[in-house]
Amino acid sequence: MTDKRPPLGITMGDPAGVGPELCLRLLGHQESLDACLPVIFGDSAVLNRVASILGLDFPIRCLSLREWETGNTGLGEPVVIDLPSSDLDYMQPGRVDSQTGAASYRFIEAAIDAALNRRIAAVVTAPINKEALRAAGIQQPGHTEIFAEKTGSTRSCMMLTSDELTCSFVTTHIGYRDVPAALSIERIWEVLDLSHKAMKRLRGRTPKVAVCGLNPHAGEHGLLATEKRRTSFSPQSNPRDSREST
Length: 246
Known about the structure:
The chain is α/β, with parallel strands linked by helices. The protein is built from ten helices and seven strands. It has two domains: 1-154, Isopropylmalate Dehydrogenase (3-Layer(aba) Sandwich), CATH 3.40.718; 157-246, no CATH class. The strands form two sheets. It has a five-stranded parallel beta sheet with strand order 3-4-2-1-5. A two-stranded antiparallel sheet has the order 6-7.
């Protein structure tokens, strides 16, 4: 019988962070294993060491990236795509380091390539360290920007979703003082449009959408700051199609 569980790429995240433990916990979580086939993009030596420290089993097949890319995917069971990351003797848990930043980026790259080549159905990411990423010379500040660049997306936004509530962000990975200058009618509409279409695809129905104000009470018509006056928005503001309503 063909295994109908979707293969999900799991990036291990920063080797010095919590990502390796999360991957190991996932492999022992039967509900997750019933729902998908985990394909972990990470460092098997790090996973083995963390498993030994935590007293966890690590009975999983490991493939090199070359073995994975040349057709032997190992689907039908969870698998680790082994991407050796750094000197284990040098790496210290919890320490920011360029080696672990570079490794976490490599895991993400490999998983995105696998998704674009339809070898996995989607990518799930363990945490990365943005300081370590920058120390490795990676200019993108986070997952959102990395995925947008690697997939060639001209429009993107960060969305957090649950059964009860979904939140999308007009800005990501910038300081609070830089937010007002990053807002524009075009960008606000872009995020609304992306979120509206994504929720229709995910939920199969037209979503109810609310736009949060930048300031308390949305500024109270200038009483609590004036950014809303300078960057006002209404559904009719869409320069591409003023007829669409969210």
